Amino acid sequence: MQVRSQISMVFHLDKCIGCHTCSIACKNIWTDRSGTEYMWWNNVETKPGTGYPAQWEDQDKFAGGWEKKGDEISLRSTDKKRIVPNIFHNPHMPSMDDYYEPWTYDYQNLFNAPEGPDQPTARPISRVTGEYIDIESGPNWDDDLGGSKIYAANDPNLKGLSPDQRQQLSAIERLVFFYFPRICNHCLNPACVASCPSGALYKRGEDGIVLIDQKRCRAWRSCVAACPYKKTYYNWHTGKSEKCILCFPRLETGQAPACFHSCVGRIRYLGVLLYDAEKIEHIAKLPDSELVEGHRSMILDPNDPEVIESAKKCGIHDAVIDSAQKSPVYKFVKEWKVALPPHIEYRTLPMLFYVPPMSPVMSQQNGDTVDHLNNGFFHDIESSRVPMKFLANLFGAGHESKVAYALKKQKAVRWYRRAMTVGDIDMATAHKMLQAADCSVEEAEALYRLTSLCTFDDRFVIPPAQREEAIEMMKDPHEHRQSVGFGFSSGSRRGL
Amino acid sequence: MEAGQTYLDEMLFAVLPYIALALFFLVSIQRYRAQRFTYSSLSSQFLENQRHFWALVPFHYGILTVLTGHVIGLLIPRQVLAFNGVPLRLYILEGTALVFGLLTVVGLVAILVRRWVFVKARTVTSPSDWVLYGLLLVQAVSGVYIAVIHPWGSSWFAAAASPYLWSIARLNPEINYVVALPWAVQLHIVNAFVVIGFFPFTRLVHILVIPNQYLWRRTQVVRWNWSPHSRRLPR
């Protein structure tokens, strides 16, 4: 057993209100520089929708992630064999048109325009060329189902849905959508790392954050093509790729990442997961139907004495183990099994998990009335407005059982709380539902508390990074006395 | 100085090569040490992905093949001469070289046009890029011109250019090999040294950092801030 720790995340989609505060927090800190204007390390998509970049989930087009061929897996884009002939032109590289051309406005014209019969306007100006442009798309162009005939209708997750189900998704007055906030998943088997010819991408051993070494990056852009989530971006100005760094400078000082910290709906949870790194290769090669369960099985119980002992042997600090024991992510993912990895069929083993969203029940069934308890407790989950198949394509590699389990448990907890607080359902029914959803009363209480009454410290259990200890281990701080530190800038001159 | 050689010849064929080589080595190393962040080619495929393939691929395959030919002629001139002893082989070799030379020119012109016509690509083209493209165009066009007007270069390269280049390597330049050559060949040689000298100041440095280790490195890369073995050892 090779125990490693990973800072891992849960997004509770049932709570996301789609306000984009996370995106703005991230942009203001990290991507407001020249060349990064088009990047959204954190973005919030409307589902169904084509997302950002448009249709990123269509791997026939973008060739991201891993592909299983027989017993082996290989990168869909440029693996070792294909990189040599394709080194001069990356065949699967998305271009700026797949994202959008960033722009600002010619505000000066509002002040400087000569007097005339019309109001002056501020025309959009490209942030790339500085010329006037006509805006053709932008971030969240399809927000809240805008242009859904083009965007929502072409969501790759609609694969396998019947024409009826598709129609039902967009039927007037029955429209349904939910929000899907996305950051880098900091995967266990990252395709971006595997694809980098320069070896510039790496996973940090002690917390699993995937980073790009800016000095080693040589603009091959393989990571951009290889990442199935399209969460590495090419900075056209510096000629380097960049990605979400999980705000590691904040994490190292005990603060939650900016997008987490600013989350209005409090949908985000962050904590340590311990996992067995020896299993990565085996799990990544499992058949589609076993991926979700296999991925979950890699995550180790931080309270198991054997695991604790191995973790210590592997150099994991007591404080990190302690933090793993309090991890909200562990509870959602492993104990309660309500949080699921996105698109695990890409086989990158993402370490960001989503609690699938509940959706309004479909009232079609009995004319215009909704009958709650006619055929079983959970009938409205199977026939909710967002088809189960759609959610399964997103969170279950196309298999519905894991998604259904998560939704049933959420619904049972809701009804249990409803019986307790509203009282229009009798407790016996609620208990029956809990039982049917494989959920004890204690679990229901805990799930309810962590979902609805969570404090800041419940949501973010950040282990002490102990960077000072790490630095002392690798470098002697005394060597750097009276110097100007180490970093990008070249050494100072004239005795500063 | 021997008869028929001027000071200009001396400067161009005996002094310039050393200036160029000195710049090449010193600046390349210094830039790698001091400005590693800039040590790559600034790709514009992200900004313009339609013509990129038709410009970059012919150019690179063309120039790589032609350059390889030059290096082989330099390293094993006798064997090349012997190979060319059979006329058919000579024709095939020359024909191939010409095709790849033309491919280089076509690719380079396509690169220039693409960089100029597509405004986004033009935005990321620096003055040094334009100078470099100009130099490379002179080099490629003069090369193709030589291949057509002064054929069988693969043979006379061994007799004229190879000894001259080796004499430079031996720090005893014998410029009599080149002063009598046609002007196009002289231009090709001089311009080659200009490109070598200019090399470390341009995007060409990406050639020096070809990521060959990718082919045998492990698939996944993990970096530790601390050594897992020493972490729990008493200090």
Question: What's a concise summary of this model?
Answer:
The complex is a heterodimer of chains A (496) and B (235). Chain A is of the alpha+beta class and 496 residues long.
Description:
The complex is a heterodimer of chains A (496) and B (235). With 496 residues, chain A is of the alpha+beta class. Chain A has a single domain (1-101, 111-357, 455-488), classed as Alpha-Beta Plaits. In chain A, 31% of the residues lie in helices and 13% in strands. Chain A contains 21 helices and 14 strands. In chain A, the strands form six sheets. In chain A, strands 13-12-1-14 form a four-stranded mixed beta sheet, sandwiched between helices. In chain A, a hairpin with a 2-residue loop joins strand 3 and strand 4 (72-75). In chain A, helix 16 (388-395) crosses helix 17 (400-421). Chain A starts with a strand and ends in a 22-residue tail after the last helix. Chain B is built from nine helices and one strand. In chain B, helix 3 packs antiparallel against helix 7. In chain B, 24% of the residues are buried. At the A-B interface, strand 8 and helix 21 of A face helix 2, helix 5 and strand 1 of B.
How are the secondary structure elements laid out?
The complex is a heterodimer of chains A (496) and B (235).
Chain A: E1 3-12, H1 21-30, E2 43-47, H2 59-62, E3 66-69, E4 72-75, H3 80-83, E5 103-105, H4 108-112, E6 124-126, H5 163-170, E7 178-182, H6 191-195, E8 201-204, E9 210-212, H7 222-226, E10 232-235, E11 240-243, H8 248-251, H9 258-261, E12 268-276, H10 280-284, H11 291-298, E13 299-300, H12 305-313, H13 318-325, H14 328-335, E14 352-355, H15 379-382, H16 388-395, H17 400-421, H18 427-436, H19 441-452, H20 456-459, H21 467-474
Parallel strand pairs in A: 1-14
Antiparallel strand pairs in A: 1-12, 2-7, 3-4, 5-6, 8-9, 10-11, 12-13
Helix pairs in contact in A: 16-17, 17-18, 17-19
Chain B: H1 7-34, H2 52-75, H3 77-83, H4 87-117, H5 119-123, H6 127-149, H7 153-169, H8 176-179, H9 183-198, E1 222-223
